[in-house]
Amino acid sequence: MQSTPNYLWSTDDLLGQGATASVYKARNKKSGELVAVKVFNNASYLRPQEVQMREFEMLRKLNHKNIVRLFAVEETGSSKQKVLVMEYCSSGSLLNVLEDPANAFGLAEPEFLIVLQCVVAGMNHLRENGVVHRDIKPGNIMRLVGEDGQSIYKLTDFGAARELEDDEKFVSVYGTEEYLHPDMYERAVLRKPQQKAYGVTVDLWSIGVTFYHAATGSLPFVPFGGPRRNKETMYKITTEKPPGAIAGVQRQENGSIEWSYELPVTCQLSAGLKDQLIPILANILEADQEKCWGFDQFFAETNDILHRIVVDVFSLQQASSHRIYIHPYNTTSKFLDAVFKQTSIAPHHQEYFYEGHPYELDPNLQAHSFCRTARHSPLTLLSSAEQPEEVVGVRYRDPALDFPKFVPKVDVVADCSTAKSAVGAVHQTLRIAQALRRCQELVARGLHWVIGNLKSECSRVLEQRRGVNTVLTSLQLLEVKTRGLYEALPGGSGLPALKDLAVVKSRLQRVVEELSQCSHSIYDFQGALDGILSELVQHRQQAHEDKSIQQLECCLEKMQLIHKQFRKARNCPRLGYNEEQIHKLDKVNLGHLARKVLLIFQDECVRQYQDVLALHSSRMRKVCETKKHLKRLSNRIGTCGVEAMECQECLQHALDTFSQMALTEKRSPALVPPVPSPVPLSQARREMAFQMQELLEQMKSVTCDLQFNNSIIERLSGAAPTPGL
After folding, report:
1. Are 427 and 295 in contact (CB under 8 A)?
2. Which segments of the chain have a pLDDT < 70?
3. Which of 122, 204, 240, 474 could link 66 by a cystine bridge, Cβ 3.0 to 4.6 Å?
4. Binding-site residues, please?
5. Which UniProt keywords apply (predicted)?
């Protein structure tokens, strides 16, 4: 045990160790509060006094939630060694997080954004106080978990830090070689004499390497054999990097460098975030200090990301998920353009559904007023383009390529590393399997919504047809009545109006036949849509019964236990006979579980996913064709309604003409033909007047029918189709 006047710790509680100091977990003697104590060794006192005091002064000067706090500076009782008493971060460092096999391919997007926000905020505080850190790396970014369960990251280890303004330079060399700026690497690692001075941008290079490591789980620049074994090539990669490249890997000894301008597909970050992050990495991973961004631009661009909100979108025809990073104040047009950039679906062809209903986006609506979305509850995008969208699906790299080779020879160090790689590969396989399952669920749900909407549209079009049909039936009856009126007139059979009525009758018959064809088509569409819905229900039941994800999770749990056992074995100087036999069995079991994982993934997860996508493509074609045909049918029925109105106008004109003729007949008794004897003339006139009265009453009835038809036609013409359909 060691102590200072106020703190106590055991040397077994080692948290970290460096060239000049060791860090232990300690307790306050009075309160029991946990703290971290940094105890300096004898080598630290060989440094100049100014350098020894620098870290104390730096920490006293800094006060920020993303920088580890300094509580006190004390001395041990016996040796009088200096001790820094600091804030204890119970969850280790960012390096510990990245060494977890679950993060072998980088952090999940929400966690990466937290790292980005915390590091940027901490670095901003350093620059406000004119401090350059000079040893930024995942091991110097501590983590603790807040009361809300969310990670908080804090910069620590200011042993290499010093005050330096933006326009100042320094010549001393500090840092960890994988994260060192190339100019500093040349002098510190390769030991080449040079007279270069370094500015504050050396921290930006280290931040770039750290962010790449956090995003991908790997270092950006890797020579064959690794950075520590092939230092000359490491320097060559970092100094000869082409503009815009963010990574360079040498696959073979003395081989060429494979440059990368994108983050790998294995990375967990969405395409939307990658698009924002890659330009930042490209401009801070710049060896030429004159071309590298300054901190002002770095802070501006990173804060631009952090101030955006995310809208999750699922493109139904393409079966692909997208995350749109957009400012809260941006309007719908900006959002539609951002969706177009990721999906290639033109803004005027984008239609959306949310929670089962068409979702109309007002052109002036700001993004902060959009509905709340998530990966499992996105806006569902439907393209209305004539050309069908190609199915894209989930982009992923075959996880079999990331599984290590299992060798029979027992080597506890190598076996532990192999087990760690295998567990990391299974984590990645499980994530891909979950993404494939989520894609299938979103496809089925989106199709269900669209089909439900189309069925409603079928009902609306049928109602439209019924309305027009009601008018037609009435008009056919009116045509018969009107023709009867004309035929009742003396000499009416030869009137021109009867020819016009015959044309109306023929037109009405054609419209009736057209409506009948429309009805049959709509019923066929309804049947086809019901068939797809039935298939979707059946698939949902099959998906519910599928246990492949649970099987993968079970295999992962068993492999994690083996990895844990191998970690213990790695710390043993030598395994006993029994322990070695158990180790061999565990190793065989590890290989068996890895093969089982790949078998489940390929034979169940991928096969089901591919089957669903194959069916989805044909279903979407049917749905889109139905959608187009329904629109055409609605237009055809609308045309029938227009023709019915024209027929009604013809009948109205015929009635108006008849009315004038009837009135003329009533006022002109001379036109009444002579009535043969013995019927008196006055009686003949009375009978004619009675007939005319009957005709006028019939005409009133026909006029009422016409007015009723008008009201139906007006209602039909005012019924707008369902939005987007």
Report:
1. no
2. 43-52, 162-175, 193-198, 490-494, 662-703, 705-725
3. 122
4. 38
5. ATP-binding, Coiled coil, Cytoplasm, Immunity, Innate immunity, Kinase, Nucleotide-binding, Serine/threonine-protein kinase, Transferase
